[in-house]
């Protein structure tokens, strides 16, 4: 049903008339110091692709790389953190694979399921649909600052919990309201992933920068030049595809390109159902905001106004 050709979040294989299997894999090196937190965040990030497709994770396999000098109790904490999030998702870990490597890396191969008619792709939005973001931006800037020792304990904990928060509640809340498309915000940043949505739909995503929620402290750090290298790569890649109005403050513009770890969902939904979606998300404890709208195709796939 869904393959590699559309830059979607996961592969989807139709098993029967009422069951589709969703398959995804994701792993990376540590972005936080605490090994258990690393496992939690990496698992949250890997599980997110299933939620972005409108599915429920059911099975996960550990992917682990670690040097022989790494104490086994540290490895155990990484795996324990991952298992915590898999349990929270309602899935089970059924094994995995580990290899020796110079740098620790961890993640999951995740299998989920959904009804074939409920599968969401990143390219199904219609003209006039509103775009709803379910997590604030800034995890790339914040993790860069944390590595440089620029975050206090409270800010660091808030950053970790933001990334470790599953997109499970957001997914379960949106599905009854029949969104038309969905993706999650990860390494290509908000603009990169919204550009994929617009391109897939043959439309232009018109975003309002001032409506985009940002994580506490992220704007101030961006203003000080604490920008990850991935943000510059995203900006270069989107040249000619995305246009950001010159009136958008530079610090906010930087966050639009900021690569996210376990970022929120971007949900496309008809305007008539958007207010109810926001109401239900708020009631479920998900801080969400309308950040833009899909419009008829223009010169750029994404435009960002003030």
TrEMBL record:
Required co-factors: Mg(2+)
GO cellular component: cytoplasm
Ranges of residues in domain PurM-like C-terminal: 127-304
Annotated ranges, domain PurM-like N-terminal: 8-113
Top-level taxon in the UniProt lineage: Bacteria
Binding site for ATP: 6-8, 26, 49, 96-98
Major enzyme class: transferase
Cofactor binding comment, as recorded: Binds 1 Mg(2+) ion per monomer.
Catalytic reaction annotation: hydrogenselenide + ATP + H2O = selenophosphate + AMP + phosphate + 2 H(+)
Subunit and interaction comment: Homodimer.
Entry's family note: Belongs to the selenophosphate synthase 1 family. Class I subfamily.
UniProt protein name: Selenide, water dikinase
Organism in which the protein naturally occurs: uncultured Eubacteriales bacterium
